[in-house]
Every structure is written in structure tokens, then in C-alpha cells.
């Protein structure tokens, strides 16, 4: 690319723009369509034009009230928050230990965690369901939280470990000479230096927990305790022809994700590069 | 992801030489206390389930009483069950096609994004990535509406441009259901791959291109001999993530088709789920047989990780 760029940069750039912009329109179309549909009158979905002539917010009102949207939204918010905090606490502690502390069997334990890192929840859903059942945690948000935190903590630990490894050992040794306990060093010296790492784990964890469907849909049966994703799934059956209400529900469920993504895009991309490419 | 783990394991072995030196007790205690909570949860809710499902796959069990040990019967049953065979083939086909498409389109878009003015690049990156951050449920419901045979947008658009003959019940036809699912999967995955490839492109030393240009290499040659080899590790990661995501596919298919019509989009994940949990008709859950599919899924995912380690290792040389 750069050979031609060196002489006539705008030719290549214009060509790339010319290809990318229509592609972006195509990629963004489903979301634009979702917004437009959520804002149109119910009676125009069958034969009205694709861009509606008049807009109304009534579908949002309907989605908000008739499916107890606030309740499920709140369920999602608090389940996600507790998971993020839990994963963060466990992952920073263990990530730091594996990166900077020395103790017997460290490598053995580490490899054990490592080998099972990629096991998908599809493959584990049967034993997890049975396990929660025998623990009496089926149909409880606590049970769901336990599964979320334990399923995500190892991967977050690997991410955090990579961040901790970039810190110089001398820093910790100096703090030890000053007489700090291992926990004070971790809490007071190390943790403040790993803000970017923490931001990455928070955003990853937020997205994956907010979007999780399989486990929530399987272990929770009581409708009131459901987070958003399983509710959106049942909504599809309930509102099979009320598309404005359905797309309004989808739109509302996506808002937090988009907000977090747009606001934290830089950390997100940076974290992904650390996790994926730099190594 | 898995690249990180690979590197991590290497550094772990290197640092093990330090174990010759005397360990400080406070560090030892702190080490165990710090990893304790994660490790206990891991043992209880990751390792134990893996072992338990492996055991269940050797039994016949409806969820009540004690599982009956049946040796490898579930696995041989899998070979003679036409739906299982079909699900296996569909899983492999979907995984293969989406992985190839995602790798290829991801690379092409990343190269283009890397070439445009930086402001356009930021805009394009933001837009392309959004399908990847919404949940699979949202994208599946959305696309189900787009594919709707009667009032779906796709058919209406085809009608509007005079291609009525192409209008279709996309998800109800055995011929079009898999391509329709592939479109949704690729749509959701491009942004992530583009971003990783883009990061990879950014980390290539520009001096390499300058030197090559001075030696008279044209753009295509530069791409073949500098860009592609430099991106080998990234490609390994993207391919293995594609394989992993394909092997564990569930959400999109479950929501869009439930594995239908007539098992034409049945994959390992949806089939094991319907065997274990799906029986609304009151049939007995087949937890043993379903667990055998869990084990197969785990083996496939492990192979994907091994494939990635192998690709990375070759690139290191």
C-alpha cells in the first residue's frame, strides 16, 4: 500500500474510503432499521415505507410498561455489577499472585487454570445446572452470580497477570523493604498503577455478562428474577407482530452497551491489543 | 486470548528457576491467600463440571435416581444417530465457512481502514465494531425480523428493486437457513477481527515497507512478503477464535431457528441443549447422551486452542 501512498497518497485513501463507506452503511443498516421500526406506528409495519412518514415514541412506552422492563433492566444492572466487582477482586488478587509472588506449585496451579480457559458454557451447561440444583441454588440469582464469577475469573486473571507483569519487580521489593505487608503493597502500591488493566477487565466483563443468555436462560425459571437477554428472547414470541414494541425493547437493552463502548473505546481497544496482539 | 495464555505459560516455566532461592514465608502465604478464592471457584464450577460431564457421558440418566453406567454406548449411539451426524457436519461446515470469511473480510477491511485518512478510519472502526458488542440475542431477533418471509425487510427490499423472484422464507427453507445464519455470524464478528488485524498492521515497522519500496517491490509484493508474514501470529489467533466460536455456537441459532427447519441448522450446542432441557413435550431428558456432546464440544475447543499454539510456535521460528 505504502509504495503508491508515498507518491499519491490520496488515490489509495480515496479508493479505500470509497469501498469502506458503503460497507459501513450495509453493516449499520440493521441498527438503523431497528431504530426506525421502534419509532413507527404499529399499523405501518406491514405496508408503510421503510422510512416512516411520522414518528412516535409510543412503542417505548409500551415496551417499558407491559413487560416490566424496568424490573428486568434492574436485574441485568445489578447482576452485571456484582459480577464485574467479584471478577475484578478475584482476578486482580490472583493475577498479581501469579505474576509477582513466589510460592510452591505456582506453575502447576497456573497451567491447570490455563488448560481449561477455553471451555465454553455450551459444553458445561448440563453439569452446572445439575450442580446448582443439588446446591439448592437453581432459580436463584445468587446461583447465577456464582456461575458468572467463577466462569469469568480465570480469564480476567490472565489479563490482569499480563498487566502486572509489565510492572518492575524493584517497585515491590522497595515497598517490602519499607515494611509493607503483601496486601498493603498490593492495595497501596500496585493496584493504583494498573488502572488501564482494570478498565479493560471491567469493560470486557460488563459486555460479556450483560449479553450472556445461555446460562441465565437455563438456571433461572422465575420470570421476575430474569435479566434482559432471556426476556428479549421470550418477547420475540409474545410480540411476534408488534415489531415497534419488540424493536423498542431491543433498543433499550442495547443503550448501556453502546454508551459504555463509546465512552471507553480507547481502553477497550488498548486492552484488546494487550490481550491479543502484543504477545 | 489464547496467545496471551501461551506466552504466559512460557514465562511461567522460565521463572520456575527461581525456586532454587529460599522462599519468604509471607510471600508464600500471601500467594495462596490471593489465588484462593479464584481457585476454589475454579475447582467447584469449572474443573468439577468438566469431570462430572465426562462421567455422565458414560451413563444413561434421565435426571432421577442414579445414573446407569453404559460404557461408551452414548458415543456409538452418536455415530448411528442421523441427527447427531447431521449436527456434527453442520457444526463443522458453519465453523469452517465463518472462520474463512471472518479471517478474509477482517484482513481486507483492516488493510483498508489502515489506508484511509485517520478520521475516516476512526468512524469506520466504530461502526463496524458495534454489531460485535450487542448480544447474540439482540442480533438474532433483529435478523429474524429482517428475514421474516411476509413483512421482513429483506424480502421487501428485494420486491422494491424488482427482484420478487428472489423473495424467500429464508429461515424456513433448508437451503437458505445456513447461509442466513452465516451472514449474521459474520456480521457480528467482522469488527473484532478487523480491530485485531488493524492493531497488527499498526505494529509492523514502516521501515520494512520503505526498504522494500527502494528495492523496487510493488504494493502486491510488499503485501505478500511483508504484511502477510508479519500478521501470522494475529492470523493464528483469529483463526483459532473463529474455530472456538464455531464449535460452541448456540445463541444465534437457538434464537433464530431453534435448530430447524427439520434439523437443517442443528449444531452440537442446540442438539445437546434440546436433549437435556428441550423436552417441553414431557419426554425424559437424556442427560447422559447430551453429555457426550458436551465432551465432543470440549475436545473440539481444545483442538482449536492446540491449533493456535501450533500456529504461534511456527511463527516464532
TrEMBL record, chain A:
It is found in: Cell membrane. Pfam families: BPD_transp_1 (PF00528). One of its GO terms (biological process) is transmembrane transport. CDD domains: TM_PBP2 (cd06261). Keywords: Cell membrane, Membrane, Transmembrane, Transmembrane helix, Transport. The chain crosses the membrane at residues 15-36, 77-98, 110-130, 142-164, 243-262. Residues 73-264 form the ABC transmembrane type-1 domain. The keyword Metal-binding does not apply. GO terms for cellular component: plasma membrane. It is a multi-pass membrane protein. Belongs to the binding-protein-dependent transport system permease family. This is Carbohydrate ABC transporter permease. It comes from Kribbella capetownensis.
Automatic annotation (TrEMBL), chain B:
PANTHER family: ABC TRANSPORTER PERMEASE PROTEIN (PTHR30193), DIACETYLCHITOBIOSE UPTAKE SYSTEM PERMEASE PROTEIN NGCF (PTHR30193:SF41). InterPro entries: ABC_transporter_permease, MetI-like, MetI-like_sf. It is a multi-pass membrane protein. Gene3D superfamilies: MetI-like (1.10.3720.10). The chain crosses the membrane at residues 29-51, 87-115, 127-147, 177-199, 233-256, 287-311. It comes from the Bacteria. Its main location: membrane. GO terms for cellular component: plasma membrane. It is found in: Cell membrane. This is Sugar ABC transporter permease. Residues 88-308 form the ABC transmembrane type-1 domain.
